[in-house]
Amino acid sequence: MLKGKTVKKPVIILTGYLGSGKTTVMKELLQNQVGRKFAIIVNDMGSVNIDATLLRSGCASTYSNNMIELQNGCICCTLRDQFMVEIEKLSAVPDIEMILVEASGVSDPGNIAQSFMMYQETKPQSPVYLSMVVTVADADRIYAEFLDDLEERTEQEFEDQDPDIINLIMDQIEFCNLILLNKCDLLPRDKLDRVKQALHELQPEAMIVETIQGKVSPALIMNHQQLDYDKVRNSSMVSRTLAGKAETSGQHSEYGITSFVFEDRHPLNRDRFTAFMENDYPGTMIRAKGYIWFSDDDIHVQLFEQAGRNASITEVSNWVVSLPESDQKEVFENYPEILNDWDEVYGDRLNQVVFIGREYNQREIIRKLQDCLA
Fold first, then answer.
1. Which CATH superfamily is domain 9-235 in?
2. What is the per-residue pLDDT across 328-368, written as a single tens digit (0 to 9) for each?
3. Coil, strand, or helix at residue 342?
4. Which has the closest alpha carbon to 102: 70, 65, 137, 139?
């Protein structure tokens, strides 16, 4: 090593929804380390960090590493600042070669990666860089939630699903550069291939590796490459469809999964849209995501998300056009690109949703959505 030259240390983020096998993968990685020194950050939403306890009890090698527990919150939002402080502290430990982070089951990896980008912009000489975002996915659950036939599921099974978690599964798949498809022994080959094909369409930049009981070669994850944030962010099917809009609308993929964008300035009637979602929404839709607004609320931006058999609508912010004139002026000064798509009547208010699915009637869906307009 050259005198005075700082060697930056890679940070690896391990994500995956609850029950996917994320902690098992982490244990496998630690048990198969070959003389390497890791620092470990384990995030758990609860007041007791169960994952950290499991790692300690099941993997003696963790005692020779630095382990930080972050609990009572998530590193993608409420614990974000504390998370970056701990990253900086650990990077200063001389013999630490890399930092492994097990995010909570409800974390959004895109938000975590964005925190790194902001951190590196303010501190260009930072001693760390984001190397990998790894998503652990349960192959059996992916098939059941997104690809299985609706007719085979009972009404009770639909009601038992948590729409926020199901949408989060998609968020975690859409932002990563490695998918560990776990529990592959629970599906026959033909169904497993369908899962892999669907995941490849949703995020083509991610390598997909089949695993059983979390067993994976450490070399796949600890390769010291730097994550290309923009490439990962822009390569999901949602992002690609939005970027292409009408040019890619209805285009068939190699595996029969297609996408299109519904876009209209006029507000939606809340009751009609709710009735459409409950009674007429096509069961072959795998994913939908975008922003909408309702005629009874011209102030708030609503995030509409659907994944598999679950959908949710969440109030996320205010439309710029609804802000006081002084606040609008400040927004325009800081984000002038907003004016590029400004409408004289509606301002920035817009319904813009990407739909992804298979064997659906795009024209019929658009007609029904137009019927929901106020």
1. P-loop containing nucleotide triphosphate hydrolases (3.40.50.300)
2. 999 898 888 889 889 999 999 999 998 988 788 899 999 99
3. coil
4. 70
